[in-house]
From TrEMBL:
<dbReference type="Pfam" id="PF01551">
    <property type="entry name" value="Peptidase_M23"/>
</dbReference>
<feature type="transmembrane region" description="Helical">
    <location>
        <begin position="43"/>
        <end position="63"/>
    </location>
</feature>
<dbReference type="GO" id="GO:0004222">
    <property type="term" value="F:metalloendopeptidase activity"/>
</dbReference>
<dbReference type="InterPro" id="IPR050570">
    <property type="entry name" value="Cell_wall_metabolism_enzyme"/>
</dbReference>
<keyword id="KW-1133">Transmembrane helix</keyword>
<feature type="domain" description="M23ase beta-sheet core">
    <location>
        <begin position="144"/>
        <end position="242"/>
    </location>
</feature>
<dbReference type="InterPro" id="IPR011055">
    <property type="entry name" value="Dup_hybrid_motif"/>
</dbReference>
<feature type="region of interest" description="Disordered">
    <location>
        <begin position="1"/>
        <end position="26"/>
    </location>
</feature>
<protein>
    <submittedName>
        <fullName>M23 family metallopeptidase</fullName>
    </submittedName>
</protein>
<dbReference type="InterPro" id="IPR016047">
    <property type="entry name" value="M23ase_b-sheet_dom"/>
</dbReference>
<keyword id="KW-0472">Membrane</keyword>
<keyword id="KW-0812">Transmembrane</keyword>
Length: 250
């Protein structure tokens, strides 16, 4: 009877060693000698360190350039947002919905308050001078302003009001942006009122257009502006230039 053939899975792994082992054993010492000689050179480790540092820095600069920033509820510093850099936005057409269908938005200050824009919304296509004015310094880093900052003269307080009817979804004090109130307007639009010195509403309150939400104050993020209001408009979570939503004059 012929001897039963062995399965290839059960054969000892000897063929490869018999055929190619000698060649492999000759190559390994040469490679180790070459590698050892390379490591022994004085410039090897400094060159390796500089190459690694250059790679890490290049990755950090690339990553930061692709991620603009916006204020975050749960973190002290602005958090990375997934939106692309904001381009020039056109004033909405008459048939567009600004904040709600019922009313036209008003400015976030009492009518007649002589405020001026002390820091504009960051527009990626604006002039270099305008872009520089729209940068916010935080911890020796600069971030694009995702809203507008309003003040009388940096010393005069003023009331901050709701631009439209809505529901307060946040009302607390943030260590970076000061007192902050979020108002949800029920159509994918949210307005943010930050750098408040006093807060007159609480989470869950229903507010009407013109209701006082708080007073202008100061914040670490806008300490160079004195008493002011930081105001944002977000549509579906994306900041838009408030001037494309607000009427032309207060």
């Amino acid at each position: 009877m012929d001897k039963e053939r062995e399965s290839p899975l059960n054969r000892p792994a000897t063929d490869g060693a018999d055929q190619g082992g000698a060649g492999d054993e000759g190559k390994a010492p040469r490679f180790r000698r070459w590698l050892g000689g390379l490591i022994a050179r004085k410039w090897f480790f400094p060159a390796l360190y500089l190459a690694a540092a250059a790679f890490i820095l290049s990755f950090i600069f690339w990553y930061q350039s692709t991620k603009p920033y916006t204020m975050d509820k749960d973190q002290g510093l602005p958090a990375v947002s997934d939106r692309e850099p904001q381009a020039v936005l056109e004033v909405p057409a008459a048939d567009d919905v600004p904040v709600t269908k019922a009313k036209t938005p008003i400015w976030p200050v009492a009518q007649g308050t002589p405020v001026k824009i002390v820091r504009p919304f960051y527009n990626d296509e604006a002039s270099a001078e305008e872009r520089a004015r729209a940068l916010v310094e935080v911890a020796q880093s600069y971030y694009p302003n995702t809203g507008i900052d309003l003040a009388v003269d940096g010393k005069t307080p003023f009331d901050v009001v709701a631009v439209m009817d809505g529901t307060v979804t946040r009302a607390d004090v943030d260590p970076v942006v000061g007192g902050v109130v979020w108002v949800d307007h029920g159509d994918g639009t949210r307005t943010t009122y930050a750098s408040l010195g006093a807060i007159r509403v609480k989470e869950g309150d229903a507010v009407r257009q013109g209701d006082v939400l708080g007073t202008a104050g100061t914040s670490p993020m806008g300490k160079d502006l004195g008493l002011h209001l930081h105001f944002e408009v977000l549509r579906d979570g994306r900041p838009v230039d408030p001037l494309t939503v607000l009427p032309s004059q207060n």
